[in-house]
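Re: export button greyed out
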Amino acid sequence: MSSKKVTDVVPVEEDKASKVLREIMAGDPVRIALSVLLGFIIGAIFMVVFNADVVSSWSRFGSDPSYALSTVWWTIQDGYGALFTGSVYNIDSASFLEGIRPLTETLRFAAPLIMAGLGVALTFRVGLFNIGATGQIMMGLAGATFVSTRLHMPIIIHMLVAVLAAVICAMIWGVVVGILKARTGAHEVIVTIMLNYVATSFFTYLLREPNLLLEFNGGGTPKSDNPDDSAKLGALLGPDFNLHFGLIFAVLAVFAYWWLMERSTFGFRFKMVGHNASAARAAGIKVENTFVWALAISAAFAGLAAANQGLSVDGGLTASIEAGIGFDAITVALLGGSRAGGVVMAGLLFGAFKAGSSTMQVAGVSPEVLGVVKALIVLFIAAPPIIRAFYRLPKPSIKIVESAQKAKAAKVVK
Amino acid sequence: MKLELRNITKRFGTLTANDNISLILESGEIHSLLGENGAGKSTLMNVLYGLLQPDEGEILIDDKPVKFTGPGDAMAAGIGMVHQHFMLIPVFTVAENVVLGNEPTSKLGGLDLEKARALVKEISDRFGFEIDPDAKIQDLPVGAQQRVEIIKSLARNAKTLVLDEPTAVLTPQETDELMEIMRGLAKSGTSIIFITHKLREVQQVSNRITVIRQGKVVASPSPKATASELASLMVGREVDLNVTRTPAKVGAETLVIKDLTVLDDRQHQMVDGVSFTVRDGEVLAIAGVQGNGQTELAEAILGLRKIHSGSIKVSGRDLTKSTVREVLEAGLGYIPEDRKKDGLVGDFTIAENLMLDGSFGPPFAKGLEIDFANRDRIADQLIADFDIRTPSATTLVKQLSGGNQQKVVVARELGRELKVLVASQPTRGVDVGSIEFIHEQIIAARDSGKSVIIISTELDEVLALADRIAVMYRGKIVGIVDAKTTREKLGKMMAGISA
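Workaround output, generated via the alternate export path:
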C-alpha cells in the first residue's frame, strides 16, 4: 500500500445534531473506555475534595506536606477499594466462597441491566432513540406478577409461563410505540417518555385492584402478594447466595442478541435501516415495519428484565421493584456501544456500582460519588468533543483509500 | 487586480493534496482549473479563500503577499466564491439575499432595502443578468439563482470570482448564457477562476488552462487544445471519449409505461401522463434538466413512490401497485441518482453493500442467517469483475472514492439476473476512468439483451449511450427522438420546445 492515496471528503450531508447522535449511538470503544476512565478520575476528585481528613490535612500543608498528599491517596484508595471489596472480591473474608460473594452480587445486579440494556441497544442500532424500557418493564412486571401470584402451576412451568407473560406484555407495549411511529410519524422519544408514565401508573393501578394484583387482605398500599414459589427464579448457587436463574436468562439474551445482530438477516436489515433508512427503502425493505419489529424485539429483552425483577422478590412487590433499570438500560446501551460484548461489560460495571455502594458507605465514602461517576461517563460519551479535547484525540475524518491496485490498473490500460 | 498563487503546498497527514502549485490570474482573464474529482482543485480554492492555511507557499495580490485567515479576509481582498451548492435563503428576495451579512442600514439602524434593491438592479443591468431584485429565490430557476450568487460577490466588490463547477445544474442553454456572462465579466475587468471537469466548457471560455492531477500541476495547455488532449492530461493516459458499441439488436418490449402520473410529497404533479416502452437490447435515455420529474419517474418505476394513475408493466406483469421488493424480484435493477443517500450504506463494508437488496433469500441468506461464505465469495468475484479498487471486501464503503462507490452500486445491480436496468445519473461525481468503465458495463448489459433506461442531465452521457432519447420537461415527455438528433435540438427540447 505504498501508493496509498488519502483525501478528506465531506461525508454524507447530515445536520449536526443527527450526526452527533449517530456518533454517540455508534459508540467507539476507545472513546468509551476513556470516558469511563475520566469519569473515575473526576469521581476521585469529588471524594478527595469533600473528605474532612483531606481538607484538614491540606490546611496544614506547609507543616506536613507528605501527610497532606498521603491523605489524598488514602481517600481514593479507601473509596475505590471499598467498591472493589463490595463488588468483586472481599480479601478479608474467611473462605474463598465467602470472598467471591460480592462478585455474585454484581452478577445479580448486572443481569437485568444487561437484558434491558440489550433491548435499548437494539433500537439504537435501528436508529431509534428508544427510552421506553421503563414502561416496557412495568408492563412486563404486570404480566409476570399476575401469572406468578394469581395462577397456580407446577414448578418450572409456572416460572416459564410467568417469564413468557412478562415478555409478551412488554412486547405489546413496544409494538404500540412502533405502530405510533410507523403510522403517525410520532417521534419515538416523546412517545416512549409518555408511555413510561402511562405504564408506571397502570401497573400501580393494577396493584391497587383487589381482583387483579393487590395482595390478599391488602389495604391502601399498592403491593402484590409474594409470587408462588413455583414461579420464582430459583437460586443458582444454593441458599447461601442471592444469585438466581435470572443470570441464565441474561446469558441467553446476550447470545440471542449477538446472533440476531451479527449473524441473522433480520439484524442486517435492522442495521441497514439504522445507518441509512433511505437506502434500505430502495433495497426493498419496509422501513416502517422494521421499526415495529425492532421495538417489539427490543421490548422482549426489557420483558426479560421485568421477569428477573418480578420473580426474584421475597414478600410481595411494588412498582419500586423496577429500581431504575429502565433508565439505566439507556446508559448501559450507550456505554456498551450497542454491541453484545459492550453491553455485558457496561452492565457488569453498573452492576458493580450497585453491589459496591453499600461497602463504600461503610468505608465512609458517600456512594453518591458513584452516581456522579455514572452520570459523568454518560455525559462524556454524549459529548465526544469533550473527550477528544481532554485526551487530545484527533477529530474523526473520513479517509479515502485507493489501494496499490492503481498501479495494476494502469498496467492493464497501458 | 493580479492574483498569484505561488508554490502552494498543502498536506493532510501523509497526503499531499496540493504539491507546489503555482497559478497566475491577470485582471480580466478567465483561467480554467481542470481536474478530476479529488485532484486537489477544491483544496487549492479553499486555501485561496482562507478556509485552509497552506503549509508552504504564498498568495500575492498585485505582487504583494497577503495572508487570509478566513473567508472574510479573502472577501475583503476582493475574492468572491460561487459554490456548487448555492448559499441562498429560498424564502428571501434577491435583494435580501444579496445584502445578507453586509446589510446597508438607514439612519435609524434599520435595514435599508431600497439601497439593496438599487444595488442589485445596478449590477444586474450592467451585466445583463435580468434579475428582479424583488423575486423570491425559491421562485427563480437554477440558472437565475446562480446569477444571484454572482451578484452577491460583485456587490461585495469582488475583483476575482471563483466559480466552482457552476454548470453542473444548468441546461445547455443556461450554460451558454453563463459562458456569455463570464465573458462579459472578464471584459469589464473581473477575473475568473473556473473550476470544472467539463472539457467543452473549458475550450469555449478559457484564456488560460491549468490541469491538475493528484495535487500537481501537470500542464498548462493552450485554450485551443482538443477535448481528447485535455482529457488525456486530466486522467494521465489516453482516454477514449467515445463508447464503442454495435448497433442495437432490439427484442421484445419488456418495459411498458402507460399514462403514468406521479405526485411528489407536496402533491404536485411531477410526472404527467408519461408513456414509453423500452425494448430488450436497447438504451432509452431520458434527458432533461434536473427537477423535471425524472427523479419521481425513476422512484415510481422502482415502487418507491406511489403511482397516482397509469401503469407499469415488465414482461407483461403489472407492477403498478407492487412494493419495492416485488419490483426488484421481478428483475428490475436500479442505480439511484444519489448513491450516498439511496444506493449505499456508508458504514457498511463493500461485501455488505453488495448484498443490500439480497437479504431475503439465496444466495446471500440461508434460512434466517446470512450465508457469510457465499457473501464473501460473491463480493470477491464482483470486486474483481467490476474493477472496484479496494484493499479488501471488508473496507467500509464511505472510505472509497466516488467512482469506486458507484462501481459497488453498478456491480450489485448488474451482478444479479435482470430484465430491466434503470440507471439515474450513473456517472455523477465519478472520475473519468470510472465513467468509461461504467459506460462499458451499461452497454454490455444492453448487448446481453437487457432493457436499459438511462436518466441523465448530462447531454454528453445521453449522446454516448442512447439508442433513443426521450426528453422530459415539466413532467411531460416532449418527444422521443433517435440518437442522431443534434445537441442544439435536444437543448431546445430540454427547454420545453417540442420537436
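Residues 109-349 of chain A form one domain. The button fix ships in the next patch.
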